[in-house]
Amino acid sequence: MYQYYCFNQIAAVGLSRFNDQYVQTEETSEADAILVRSAKLHGMEFSDKLLAIGRAGAGVNNIPLDDCAKQGIVVFNTPGANANGVKELVIAGLLMAARDIVGGIEWVKSEIGDPEVGKLAEKEKKNFAGTEIAGKKLGIIGLGAIGQLVANAATHLGMDVYGYDPFISVDAAWNLSRTVHHINDVNEIYRKCDYITIHVPATDSTKGMISREAIDMMKDGVVLLNYARDILVDEEAVVEALKSGKVHRYMTDFANPTVNGAEGVVITPHLGASTKEAEDNCAVMAVKELRDFLENGNIRNSVNYPNIDMGVCTTASRITICHKNVPDMIRQFTRVISDAELNIANMSNKSRGNYAYTMIDLENEVSAQVMTRIASIDGVLRTRIVK
Q: Where a domain ends, among 238, 267, 296?
């Protein structure tokens, strides 16, 4: 029997994917797995029982990834599950930037009670005139789950789309419209495009990548869209560029004091994944990932351990080992198994940065003594018998 704990409200359609071998607990200390959306887990003490955390969403800056890895706690996210919801908001952002829709709506509100508002509107509408996006150049930085959907949608709206992603996956490349220009130098997007939208994860290497220097390369009157993470953009530089006219609009999903109230900024309150469909998709995907890990030991879409999949165990037993990514670990594992006269039917080892994960299927039942010996090896963080 496995126990899980939910931070935040997790969509019922996802929780329904747990079978009768799972029960929800009200105590985090009793949980084998945690499901979370936006709750901040930094500073939280995790019990030795906790095996995994499933983030029903893509961003994981609310979870202490390295602390979890050190305890052998595998953290999952759900990339792509909310991609369509974010894509649709980006398209709305493109349209709101091209046409002063927000300004026009606010003006109409300001005339509440005026019986002549219809006539006034015909005179005032010129103040909210804009441009069409068809024929304009759109630069997309990051062609992952969201970026590729934005690219394809924009081509159908008649935009000339340029995409930059040095790490584009084979699947993403196949899914892209053939009309998308795949650019190898991001500076070409800065120089050429009328609209630029960013869709990369927040990492040390991407923080502030839309910098003052990048903005200086851009066309006068460029529109910047940021529905990924606010730290990807030097927003102080953007506000200055808005004042000078270098940037025409900054569309963002992240409210903060730097941009809130600045002229030319349109902010939505982190609505990208705030759709019923996205929340359902994320919950379903997170539960599937947790179940596969707890029941089979497989890892898919982890953000602190490597992905690894050996399917369902068909032998007598399967053991999993979270350990540091250092030399000589496999030899030590197999030595313990050999000393116990156990036979290995299948084995897989993967690493990710400082951490690694090993799965071993055995043709014999494994004893507690063997697991104790493996756990005592220097560098081993957690061991588990899956079957």
A: 267
